[in-house]
């Protein structure tokens, strides 16, 4: 009988772990942590005003692929280019009634102005619905 009690405890532990994991996913989704993607390419041809491959001022329009409000980043699919990671700070300005990164949703078309970092990430100075 001891093995039956032990098996029941294992099943209970696994079920409990799954419930906790599902609750965590539901809370993260509700808070806006839709998806986090890290290693991404540059902004694509015709999408930036910076020298090719270097750092500098950029202006990009595209569609938000995913948002990570905990890391203050989102992934942007530029019009006609490869995905690029965009980082925001407390100094980032928002337009169109938006007040923070959490005001946006995946699938939304936006215009981003900022500075391209050496790693390809854009440090946004402004994000506005396009």
Short recap of the structure:
The chain has 130 residues and is of the alpha/beta class. Helix content is 23%, strand content 32%.
Would you write up a description of this structure?
With 130 residues, this protein is of the alpha/beta class. Helices cover 23% and strands 32% of the residues. It is built from 1 helix and 6 strands. β1 and β2 form a beta hairpin.
List keywords for this structure.
alpha/beta; 6 strands; elongated
The poorly predicted ranges are: 25-52
Which strand order do you get reading across the main beta sheet?
Answer: 1-2-3-6-5
What radius of gyration results from the CA coordinates?
A: 20 Å
Shape: elongated
Protein topology:
Blueprint (H helix, E strand, L loop, with lengths): L1 H30 L24 E13 L4 E6 L5 E4 L5 E2 L14 E8 L5 E8 L1
Parallel strand pairs: 3-6, 4-6
Antiparallel strand pairs: 1-2, 1-5, 2-3, 5-6
């Amino acid at each position: 009988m001891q093995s039956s009690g032990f098996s029941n405890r294992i099943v209970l532990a696994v079920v409990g772990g799954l419930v906790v994991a599902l609750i965590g996913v539901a809370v993260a989704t509700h808070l806006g942590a839709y998806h986090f993607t890290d290693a991404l390419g540059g902004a694509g041809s015709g999408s930036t005003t910076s020298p090719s491959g270097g750092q500098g001022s950029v202006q990009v329009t595209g569609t938000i692929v995913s948002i990570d409000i905990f890391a203050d980043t989102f992934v942007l699919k530029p019009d006609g280019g490869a995905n690029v990671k965009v980082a925001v700070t407390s100094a980032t300005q928002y337009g169109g009634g938006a007040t923070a990164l959490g005001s946006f949703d995946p699938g939304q078309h936006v215009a981003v102005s900022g500075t391209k970092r050496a790693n390809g990430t854009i440090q946004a100075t402004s994000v506005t619905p396009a």
